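[User]
Protein folding is very new to me. Any chance you could explain this protein sequence and its C-alpha cells? I have pasted everything here:
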Amino acid sequence: MTLKINDTAPNFDAETTIGKINFYDWAGDSWVVLFSHPKNFTPVCTTELGALESVKNEFDKRKVKILGLSVDPVEDHKKWSQDILDVTGHKPSYPLIGDKELSVSKLYGMLPTSLGNSSEGRTAVDNQTVRNVYIVGPDKKIKLILSYPMATGRNFDEILRVIDSLKLTVEHKVATPANWKQGGDVIIVPAVKDEEAKNLFPEGWQSPKPYIRVVKQPNTNK
C-alpha cells in the first residue's frame, strides 16, 4: 500500500515505551507527528530524537502529539534513550514504537509486505526506507509525508512551519506562499469565492494576478 496525502492514516496497536497503545485512541482529537527510524543506535537518528525533544514544548503549544517509531524492540529503545541523553542533553519523553515485527512499517508502506516479521538480523541499510515523517490531522487524514535519506538529519523547524500552515488553512481558509514564516502574508484559498472572502477578510486583499488574493496573516491558535 502506498499512502498519499489525504488518505486515512491506518490505525494500529503497538508496543511503545509508554506501554501498548492503539494509535487512534492515543491520538484522540490531536494533531500527530509520526516519525520513523530504520534502527536504534544509529548516529543521525540519535541526534534527531534529542533535537525533537529539545523543541517538544513548541509542539505542545500547538496541541500536537509526537510518536516515534524504530525497527527494534522497546527494550532497546530504553537503552538508546540514555545514549540520546548523553549525546544531545535531551531524553525523549514522547513514546517510541518498538516495531520489531515490522508491522507498522509495512502497514505504512515503508517496507515491503513480502519481508519476514522480525527485525532481528536486519541492518539500518536493510531498513533505510523507514525514514518518513507523517503529519496526521484530528480527522485521521494524512496531511504531509516527508521521506529522508539516512544521512540527512530532519529539520524540525520546517515541520513546525508546516503545522502552522496547515492549521491556518483549516481555521482561516488561507494558504501560505513559498518560504512563508509566522507573521508573513498569506493567500486566500481558491475554493473561497470573492463574496465569501469579503466576509472573511473585510479589509480586502491585494491581487497581483486575478487568481492570487494576498492578505495579512490572521491570528490563529497554535
Remarks:
- The domain at 173-215 is CATH 3.30.1020.10 (Antioxidant, Horf6; Chain A, domain 2).
